Each structure stands twice: as C-alpha cells, then as structure tokens.
Write the structure tokens for this entry.
Amino acid sequence: MLMNINLTLFFSMLNLSILLGTSTNSLLFLWMMIEMNMISFIPILYFLNTPSNKDIFMKYFLIQSFSSSLMLISMFFFSLMNYSTLFLMMILLTILMKMGTWPFLWWYMHLLINMDWSSNFLLMTSQKMLPFYLFHNINSIKEISYIINLIYLILIFNLISSFFMIMNTNLLKLIISASSLNQMTWFLNLLIWDYSMWFNYFMIYSIILFITTSLFKFFNLTFIHDIHFITFYYKILILILTIFFIMLPPTINFYLKVLSIKIFSLNSYFFISFMLCLSTIFAFYLKILFPSILFFKTNYFYLKNFIKINKMFLIFLVTIYFTLFYWMF
C-alpha cells in the first residue's frame, strides 16, 4: 500500500516536471525541471526493479548529475559570453549525454538491458521529452546550422551503432534499445526542422512502444525464442507491432517517415535522408526473422534459407525507397 502511494507521488512529480518544463522558454527553469524529473525517476527505478538490479539507479544518478552540472556551467557561460559557439556545442553534447546517444550510448544500453520493461519504457520516452525540448529551445535561441555537420556526423554514427548492436543479438531488450537509438536520430533531425512533425512522430512511437513493452512484460519475454511459448493470437500481435516499429506501409508511421524524409530533403540534407532510408531497410532485413520465429520451430538451416529467399524482398524494398527518394527531389 505504501509502495503504491509512493509510486503515485513520484509519477505525479515526473508528469508535473514535464508539463512545467515544456511550458517555459527559460533555460534555467527548464534545467531545474530536468533535475526534478531525474529526482522523480530514480525512486521509480528503485520500486520497479528487482533487488539484484538496485545498483542501476546509482549509475543513472551519476551520469545524469555529471551531465547536469556540465550543462548548467555551459548555460551560464553561453549567456555570459553572448551565445558563444563553444558553449553552445557543450550544451548540445550534454543533451546527447543525457539521452544516451553516440558517443554516450553505453550507459544507456547497460541500463536498458538490466531494467524491467516498465522502466525501459519510461527511460525511452518520458525521460527524453525535456532534453528534446531543450534541444529545440537551443535551436530557437541561436540557429545551429553552422554546426549542423557535426550534429549529423554524430547522428550517422548513432545509426551505425544501432545497426551493429541489433545484428548479432537475440536479446529482446537489446533489440528494442537499439531501435530506440535509431529512432533518436529521426527525432533529433525533426527537432531541427519541424517541431510539430516531431511531436506527432514521438507520440505515435510512444504509444507503440508502450503496447510492445507491456506485452513483453506480461509474458516475461527475454529472448526472441521465448515467443515460441505464447499463443498464436499474441504472435500475430507481436508481428503487427514489429511492422509498426519498423514503420512499413500501410501503417501511418510509414507516412510520417516519408514526410520526415521529404522535410530533410527539402532542406538539402540528402545524405542523411539516404542513410535514414537505408537504416529502415536494414532494420527490416534483420527483423524479418521474426515471422519465422513466431510461426515455426526453426533451426539454423531453415533460418539461413529463409534469409536467402527474402533477399529478393530486400531488393524490392530498396527499389521502393529509391523511388520515394527520387520523387522527393
């Protein structure tokens, strides 16, 4: 009973910090709300996770405290020195550190693997809203187009890192966290060019992620092969969620992804658009193993042949994306 009351209190503080933080244009007040958000999230981590994983909240606290201190110092000198470029870059790097993007992704991946599914959902959604909003505010205060190449270099490495993480694993938490890393590249790109599109994209992604993590938590799924032991109906549901996650047609997510790529292309960032298209195709090629695992008791020989058969479908997907790419020009 006491635990439920405490959880309700901390969740209320978490939501309040997000509401107040996204309602201000003051960098200092926004920083304070980010700190309030962190203070609310750490007890939630403590209550939701098993005793063997209790140390993760300390790791989260140390990373967030260090990045927050660095962020506050950078904000002070950013304002004092008439919006200095150096301190602008420092603020952007601390935002990336807080969200766990490349090159600060290892603490983020470690936490996601060791936390329960509910904590994972919160870390991948609610804990990113205020850093995303700060990134948007920084872009509004001072146009960051002159350092955009550095940002895009980081985002490209983000895509590459997520691809290699998902390539050689059957751990569901690692697959979902690598997918989250991939999606952060889309989110940060959209924040630079179109805030309303980012909001729609983020909300739909959060809903899909909530359903997925709730389902995995309900069945206590850890590895891909655990899906063998659930009913056929839920296998179908997981397959549909996979399609939504990858954002393939005919889902509304695919439409949002196409519009996003169009926005990037209209701003003459063709290479990042091309990389984002390729990341989607590779994600599908890797996750195309899901249907075989869901519906068949497969062995290595079957999976190997299944991949070979679907190479033609991969070529078909590449053709579709190149057609869309050509149409957007």
About this structure: Confidence is low (pLDDT under 50) at residues 297-304, 324-329. The chain has one domain: 2-328. The chain has 16 helices and no strands. Residues 2-328 form one domain.
